[in-house]
User: Fold this.
Amino acid sequence: MPLKKLIWLELCGCSGNFISFLNCTTPSFDVLTSQYINLSYSNSHTIPYGNYAMDLLFKTINEGNYILVIEGAVSTRDNGVYNIIGYHNGKPITGLEAAKVAGENAEYIIAAGTCASFGGVSAAPPNLSGSVPVSDILGNKVIRMPTCPVSGDWMSSLILNLIDGKKIDYDSLNRPIYLYGITIHDNCPRRSYFDKKIFAKHIGEITCMFKLGCKGPVTKTPCPVTRWNGFINWPVGANTPCIGCANSNFPNKDFFTGRKNK
Amino acid sequence: MKKITISPVTRISGFLTCNVSIEKKYVIDANISGTLFRGFESMLIGKYPEDAIYFTERICGICSSAHSLASARSLEAAMGITPSINSKAIRNIIHGFDILQNHLRQFYIFTLPDFIALPNSENIVYKQRIPLDEAKDMISNYGRAIYYSRIAHEGLSIFGGKAPHNHGIVFGGVSSNVTPIDIGKAEDILFNITQFAENNMQEDLHKIEKYYPEYFKIGTTPDNFLSFGLFEDFPEVMICPDKYIIDGKSNIPIYEDIAEYTNTLYTPDNPNDYNFIKAPRIFGEPAEVGPLARAIITGRIKKSCTMNRIKARCDETILICKAIKYFLSIIELGQNIQSDFTFHDSSGNGYTDTIRGALVHHLEIKDNKILNYDIITPSAWNLSSKDENNIAGPLENALIGTFIEDETNPIEIIRTIHSFDPCVSCATHIYNLNGELLNEFNYMPW
Assistant:
């Protein structure tokens, strides 16, 4: 089977979703790139530079039949000049323009991380860059993969299964249900403490984080099940509250709700 | 004279443009621009102070733990709190694994393709000097490095909860409940990374040194170096003290020594120069920061040049491995529980040296909220553009005098740029459409 072309477009964000993607284990980056995808363009990874790199991006776009992953929000202020991803034949290419052009020919569009999915940190008030979610530019077919950053395991499993032609079910926000179907609270290994009303009073305690502002009850991700970094650990496992980084209002709610007026 | 624009400089974090002027095949001038603006510091105004730790780490996806550490230290400085020695050691394990993650990725994924021909490289290394039989191992290590940098993040996650953007570094200390299983897993990861760093990474570095010796002569910067200290609380494994060397003088640097110039930044009135990197200066001078600056300040390496910059990163990888080994041996088993606290009106500076060099967070707290926040990142130092006195930043300076064999493929420039490990994931100093300064403090390339 020929490798599926994949364009990974970094826009207005921290580039941490690609770093997280390199951490993937289900399958690993090595297996994914040798058996399933041809990573045709990525600012962090592509070997050619400058105009050669931009040529590669636009050549892939023109050929079509690729998966488009976008990380970071789309910066729209002043027609996008606060995020220039490179110069093509002397002309500055804004992230806004690249998203529009690359979105047209893409077979799938995946918003990787909360900035791409909902605006996230990049769109936090006062939002001087005019950042918006990818779906504001490319419409409803965008698959949303929130969390800050999105887990590499979730990304690589989705990409592999899309290429395999498996039927993935999505919720009303176009998030894959196998990842975003159940709240953290429902799967939390510390649920028994909650049920017995044993609540941590301080960060670092090994009981329920609810009263320190844990967003687990309102956040749908598989963090308690898949955990992070090769099933090693996760925020509640590190004895801290979930800060709800997968939610559309992230990061605008206080992370440690209830402490502010203490 | 010929002008060349290189954009994007791929294999970095963020968006970098390099404009050079070339005369008779030599670079005679260079201008560096960062072309991403997020307005990060302005987002922090009015937030609950403790949130800054988890918020600011989202500046940068490749070095997030550095920001959580600097942010926590600025809060602690403001409140007059000193974390326990055990917390400091665990923080250094978290930070140390992040440094390993970066250095492995930086050398193999970002740097190596500048020196050997890899698949999908479109022939940018057009005259490969390293013989094929010697390059074979390097190509295989290019792939293996993905695994080793991944497990470095796994090591971080044991104590920090996740990576990138950890939860384990909190106000006053850390949150980790250290078990014998954690120590065992971390030791296993560390052993594997150490073997790879001591053997493969050094061997691959030596091949590059052997076949590209002219890079010991180019990419130099003036002899100004700055560090805010890495593992400075532990003399046994200290990588570098907090120290500057400026104009031959040295002392401990403080926030107040630093001024930031903004004359080359983009404004709607200056629409052709899309630059969001300001120019920090210490006593009016630019300074090189990062692994090479640390090695020169501590005397491990004598001279600033492109190859020594690469070497310093590879050598430091081994030193960090040894330091983490030490921290794992001294940390105590059991919980680390945050003490009760309240915030009062105050201000503080959080300093640390990190992956790419000297980082400082400055914050002011009023009425239980963040009143002001300023961040000066390592890449702002290294990538800084010319200041009001037309003094070039370290990278701009390093590029001048470089011989370009083929102007259609100025790979020599790319090699020196990558030696600085640039990271432009955030920049924030702009004017509104009326020409007014929107946010005096807002600016940061990383």
In short: Chain B touches chain A through 88 residues (CB under 8 Å). Chain B is about 35% helix and 20% strand. The longest strand of chain B covers residues 357-366. Residues 427-446 of chain B have pLDDT under 50 and may be disordered.
